[in-house]
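Give me the fold.
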Amino acid sequence: MSGYDIKTSDFAFDLPPSRIAQQAVEPRDHARLLRVTGFALADHYVYDLPDLLRAGDLLVMNDTRVIPARLYGQRGLVRVEALLHKKTGVGEWLAFARPGKRLHAGDRIVFGEDLSATVMEKREGGEVMLRFDVDEAKFFPLLQRYGEPPLPPYIKRDKGAAKADTERYQTVYAVRDGAVAAPTAGLHFTPELLQKLRDKGVETATVTLHVGAGTFLPVKVENIKNHVMHAEWGEISPATAATINKARAEKRRVIAVGTTSLRVLESAANETGHVRPFSEETSIFIAPGYKFRATDALLTNFHLPESTLFMLVSAFMGLERMREAYRHAIEKSYRFYSYGDASLLERA
């Protein structure tokens, strides 16, 4: 394989439905952890991380907070479901709506007695532009009241997200509202585990990438070089950029917690690996052939076949290595996807 002249089908693999996690492990750090290096696979648990990481390693975590972006409302007698996925202006959001065919520009959708929105524009695939008729300061409190966590489509709930999902589909260090999907590698951390890592001498830093619903969109092209990646808003503060650059200058490892942290790191890095302060959208698409600039290791969950995320980890470790790792994970009954187990990928 050379560059991006690669077929989507190269990233296919058979995954038994029984391997897709429907509930998260408790406690969080009792999820299993597959350590993948260039020459070995080893089975661990997330709580083993203080023994697996080195003093001086820098863990970079995504501090985005998942908003309750799934809303149910009425347009007249029609029941409407709206999944907010991208803020475009004051009070304005792009959303996937069902039934999209029955909505038209100018329609008003009532989500609660004090929360409603007007359809400003209708797009393809059930996507609409909504303008909410509340003050910006009141919007997120109302969203907390009327919305629910936008669980991925492969986590099945008969009556929508359960109450427990409100807390569990959120990292313990989430502080910045804006994501419509969790940075799932971070779901495994507890305050106690983070403290043990700091006691070991592992440093931590936070970046932000507001994960969008596009993370679940399938790749529909045969050749991946024709895939158009969704854009997400990210930020790296000047202080965090300085922390990352100091670690790199001192030859300490920079370890991304999740593919979202990795994507914003790589978006902000130049050819030499120097990371600049960053506050903009990124649509970076990482696939085999990509040269990593700022990331030495990656903690991540197990991803869907033919997905951009499996392409990313294959770029990081090599496609054949990741095929071998995923075969091992399936044989050993690791749990896949958002509520599943984790892998620690360490480049040579």
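The CA atoms of residues 1 and 288 lie 8 Å apart.
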